[in-house]
Amino acid sequence: MDEDAIQLSFDRLGLSSQASIREVERAYRELCDLYSEESLATYSLMGYAERQEKLELLRTDYERILHSRLHRAPVAANLQTAADRQYSALPATIVCVDADPGQDPGTFLQQMREARGLSLRDVAERTKVGSFQLQGIEQHRFDVLPAPVYLRGFLKEFARVVEAPDIEALVDSFMVLYLNARDGKMM
Amino acid sequence: MTGSVDLEHKAPRPRIWAIGGGKGGVGKSVFSTGMAMTLAQKGERCIMLDADLGGANLHTFLGMSHPGRTLSDLFRNQSLGLKDILLSTPFENLWLISGARAMLDMANPSYLQKMKVIRQIFSLNADHIFIDLGAGSAFNVLDFFLAAHEGVVVVMPTPTSIENAYHFLKAVYYRKLRKVVRELKVERLIDAALSAKVKSGIRSPRDLMIDLQHRDPIIGEQIVRAMMPFRPRLIVNQVQRNEDRDLGKKIALACRDFFGIEMTVPGLIRTDERVLMALKSRRPVLEMFPNCPFAEDVRRIAQQMTRVRR
Ligand SMILES: Nc1ncnc2c1ncn2[C@@H]1O[C@H](COP(=O)(O)OP(=O)(O)OP(=O)(O)O)[C@@H](O)[C@H]1O
Ligand SMILES: [Mg+2]
Predict the structure, then answer these.
(1) CATH of the domain at B88
(2) I need a surface site. Which of A30, B55, B111, B154 has the fewest CB within 10 A?
């Protein structure tokens, strides 16, 4: 990816390129709040169109930074190979799971895990994700979960280890729930 | 060999504060008086200078009904200096230079008269001088604001007050920039940048700085460096709603992001009905209600602002 563009995105969020994901998220949220339509501080500074443009630019910057970090993260790559090796050993059991992965992806993952006869600790070992956070995923305890960029990776590993079908859709539906909950809290 | 002491690391004496903010009625005078009372009560010698030539009223805030000599006398009589029109107040360690009646003679003192006042402020014998500015962004107001060591902008949580504050800040910023440019003798560079303003999309001081750095990296850098000490303080006064508690931080963020102007936010002041009660009794709030929320907030801000020099 274009290094200059990434640097510019950091600049626009008022951050150094060394900023942690948490700092990126915070800056992004603060700026979205600052340029939101209800914001008294920027009320007189811009009209509707300019505001939308500004928010769009912010979102692009935010996503560009997350994307660049995701591709750099060595953790994700290692996990994959470790996990791949692990599950060739799993018995190919046919499982019965009744949770709807779209409505309740956490419970779905939990049922998949139990159907595979795996404990949280087993999954934690294979994914290198802490069992506390795995449990957070299963129970939709959004407050204990990490930033979206990490969370996505965790969810994928979790789903892969328990051999869930259609992993992308499952991860997406979890992320939607997570982001909605977080935005709801922000207001 | 000289016997002079190294004063380098000490705060300049007197330390000069200017309180402005564009909009009328936001609480500039109430806040100036609160700051001066707080520091005077701590034993620091304070002078309040009422530079609101159109609507001088600090004497009333201090319970003095008939100020004696005022700035108006100074403007009329060449031989008078600032220290000759210094008035004692009913309060220990606190003096007033009144601006009352100056309006009748001249709402806009001449450039020379203004410079005379500014020059003399620095030789007054005090620890702190608070210049209470009038509303608006006239050159008079801007020049006093820029002459001070510390510029304080007061706003209220209303759209118009915030809009005026942005206008004021930009006006001060450009006024300072003009001075810097004159000192560096690089007027031509700025003129070139400003005349291409529309074409190159310059809409804020921030855009202008970026443009200057592209035009001439060396001079651009010098200008940026010279502008750096410009770092006004921002006080949000009359805060009532919880959601306005972080308004100061947001305005500062918008100033940085939108204008490239850095501000610090030493604290906020809550709305307090005792402010009006004290005004009606012609007594300073801090004297009449020493422990009310307003007094608490002002004391906290005073402590924050006098802690260390930035
Ligand atoms: N924190 C506060 N709580 C309640 N009322 C306040 C507060 N601060 C200011 N006020 C009210 O606002 C009014 C205006 O305050 P003040 O005269 O200090 O404003 P100003 O900015 O100096 O106005 P001007 O530009 O006209 O000189 C006062 O009458 C006072 O009652
Ligand atoms: Mg006033």
Answers:
(1) 3.40.50.300
(2) B111
Query: How does B137-170 read in b/e, with b if 16+ C-beta sit within 10 Å?
Result: beebbbbbbbbbbbbbbbbbbeeebbbbbbebbb
List pocket residues of ligand 1, CB cut-off 6 Å.
B 24-30, 52, 55, 135, 237-238, 269, 271-272, 275-276, 279, 294
Quick one: DSSP state of residue B98? B
How many domains does chain B fold into?
1
Chain A positions touching B253 (Cβ under 8 A) are 14, 30-31, 34, 41
pLDDT tier, B95 (very low <50, low <70, confident <90, very high otherwise)? very high
Closest CA to B130 of B239, B44, B246: B44
- Alpha carbons B98 and B49: distance in angstroms, whole number: 6
- Backbone φ, ψ for residue A116 (5° rounding): -85, -5
In chain A, what are the domain boundaries? 3-73, 105-182
Residues of B with CB under 8 A from a CB of A: 157, 159, 162-163, 166, 244, 247, 250-251, 253-254, 256-258
Cα–Cα distance measured from residue A92 to residue B236, given in angstroms and rounded to the nearest whole number: 65
Shortest Cα–Cα distance, B139 to chain A (Å): 23
**pLDDT attached to residue B103:** 57
Domain-located, residue B226 = no
Identify which ligand lies nearest to the alpha carbon of B155: 1
How confident is the model at residue B301, as a pLDDT? 98
* Position A74 confidence tier, pLDDT thresholds 50, 70, 90: very low
Q: Which of B54, B56, B60, B49 is nearest to B100 (CA)?
A: B56
Report yes or no on B165 lying in a domain: no
Q: Between vectors from CA B35 to CA B34 and to CA B40, what angle results, nearest 5°?
A: 100
Residue A73 has pLDDT above 70, yes or no: no
Q: How far apart are CA B184 and CA B219, in angstroms?
A: 8
Identify the band that residue A70 occupies on the pLDDT scale cut at 50, 70 and 90: low
Task: Spell out where B98-203 has E strands.
Answer: 128-133, 150-155
Query: C-alpha distances in angstroms, A75 versus A6, A154, A158, B103, B222?
Result: 21, 10, 14, 72, 45
- At the second CATH level, the architecture of A3-73 is Orthogonal Bundle (1.10)
Q: State the number of CA atoms in the 13 A half-sphere of A125 facing the CB.
A: 8
- Is residue B5 domain-resident? no
Contact across the interface for A44 and B244, Cβ inside 8 Å: no
Q: Do B257 and A34 touch (CB under 8 A)?
A: yes
The CATH number of A105-182, from 1.10.260.40, 1.10.600.10, 3.40.50.1100, 3.40.1190.20, is: 1.10.260.40
- pLDDT band, residue A90 (cuts 50/70/90): very low
Query: In this model, does residue A89 exceed pLDDT 50?
Result: no
